[in-house]
From TrEMBL:
InterPro entries registered for this protein in UniProt: 7TM_chemorcpt (IPR013604)
Membrane topology annotation: Multi-pass membrane protein
Transmembrane segments: 33-57, 69-89, 146-166
Phylogenetic lineage: Eukaryota, Metazoa, Ecdysozoa, Arthropoda, Hexapoda
Single GO BP term: sensory perception of taste
Name the UniProt record assigns to this protein: Gustatory receptor
Amino acid sequence: MKDNQVGGLVRSIATIRANHSCAWETATLVNDIFQTLLLLLLAYVLTLTVSFLYYAVLWQRLALTPPQALYMAQGAAAGAGTAAAVAWASGAAVAEGAERADAAAAALLLAARGFPAAEREAQLLLAQRRAQRVRFTAGGLFPLDLRFFVSWFGTVAAYLVVVVQFTPPLATAGESPLIANCSTARKE
């Protein structure tokens, strides 16, 4: 490579570093703006989903009509879908950005091999990439990705197992305890 080509390579690596900084600052700004909203949304969805599933299990045991339990299960599925969509979108955006940056950095390192000024700029770019990893978080408490959704799903499933195991069975197979209590109260 000639000196003017090396200078062009150094300038393009410096431009990529500047663009990476700008993209990182933009992603950080988006995260700062929406992280509290996402935390509140996910807390609301988690609470709503667990309560929907609890009442679906309870109403199933109370022998109420199946559509009522089905409506609660549908609400829980909608909540789980919302949490999955947020986790997937956040994780996909971060993964796509990291994949593109890794490909660009690998190409730059190959092109800069043997030229100290270009290698130094490429090393600065890689150090900047390692130091400034983009993550979307919920209130800064946990990263939003599919690992979050899997742990959330496991928590809800464990809660349901506990509810089903410790809910007492009905007094008689075909009678609801609420109806049984009402009929005995009237006789007295």
